[in-house]
């Protein structure tokens, strides 16, 4: 769908410069998605993986975030192989709803109730980022956290349009359940594209 160079705005790698590769197509379609235009893959003509790798190599940062839509709708083996051959770290942002392909340096699972993550994908998560839209999402987060490894970092992140309402609830929840951390969409607060 698009490629761009910016700072990672959320989760464990917040503040790190990274080249973003956003893949078109999504099998989940969350009502609060902030990139709904990514859902329909046919809206975006195919781009050669070699060209994407070439574009990424121009970037001074040696980290890539592959996101979507849902990147795992596609086989990511070749992309990862080519980027790793250039010494680039590759971070995946996925719902985990599709089988894992590619070799990743960091996997962030942001699970969705309508398309829960596959067990063999969520077990590989380095980071679990649960979006909190309403109070029911806390229970969803707890249930999902039982599927990750003990080394996985757990985040609760307010859904942007409800962040003012949910922020106090998230803070309270984390204080009562300190295994969780908060993730904010800092790029939106700082107006970073």
Q: Can you give a write-up of this model?
A:
- The structure is a single chain.
- This protein is an alpha/beta fold.
- It has one domain: Aldolase class I (TIM Barrel), CATH 3.20.20.
- The chain has six helices and eight strands; from the N terminus they run ββαβαββαβαβαβα.
- It has an eight-stranded mixed beta sheet.
- α3 links the parallel β5 and β6.
- α1 packs parallel to α2.
- The longest helix is centred in the last third of the chain and has 14 residues.
- The protein is globular.
- The mean pLDDT is 93.
Helix content: 25-40%
Oligomer: single chain
CATH topology: TIM Barrel
Straight-line N-to-C gap: 16 Å
Overall mean confidence score, pLDDT: 93
Q: Spans with pLDDT under 50 lasting ≥5 residues?
A: none
H-E order: EEHEHEEHEHEHEH
Features:
26% helix, 8-stranded mixed sheet
Describe how the helices and strands are arranged:
Layout: E1 2-7, E2 17-22, H1 49-58, E3 63-67, H2 77-85, E4 89-94, E5 106-109, H3 119-122, E6 127-132, H4 136-145, E7 153-158, H5 163-176, E8 180-182, H6 186-189
Parallel strand pairs: 2-3, 3-4, 4-5, 5-6, 6-7, 7-8
Antiparallel strand pairs: 1-2
Helix pairs in contact: 1-2
Summary?
With 193 residues, this protein is an alpha/beta fold. It has one domain (2-189): Alpha-Beta Barrel (TIM Barrel). The protein has six helices and eight strands.
């Amino acid at each position: 769908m698009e490629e761009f160079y910016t700072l990672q705005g959320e989760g464990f790698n917040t503040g790190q410069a990274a080249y973003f590769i956003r893949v078109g197509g999504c099998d989940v379609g969350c009502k609060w998605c902030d990139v709904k235009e990514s859902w329909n893959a046919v809206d975006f003509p195919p781009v050669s993986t070699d060209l994407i790798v070439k574009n990424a190599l121009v970037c001074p940062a040696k980290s890539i975030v592959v996101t979507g839509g849902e990147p795992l709708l596609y086989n990511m083996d070749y992309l990862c192989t080519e980027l790793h051959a250039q010494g680039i770290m590759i971070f995946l942002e996925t719902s985990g709803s599709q089988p894992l392909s590619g070799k990743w340096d960091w996997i962030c699972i942001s699970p969705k109730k309508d398309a829960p993550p596959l067990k063999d994908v969520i077990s590989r998560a380095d980071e679990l980022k649960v979006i909190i839209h309403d109070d029911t999402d806390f229970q969803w987060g707890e249930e999902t956290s039982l599927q990750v490894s003990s080394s996985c970092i757990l985040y609760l992140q307010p859904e942007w349009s409800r962040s003012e309402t949910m922020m106090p609830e998230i803070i309270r929840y984390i204080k009562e359940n300190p295994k969780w951390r908060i993730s904010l969409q800092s790029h939106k607060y700082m107006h970073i594209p």
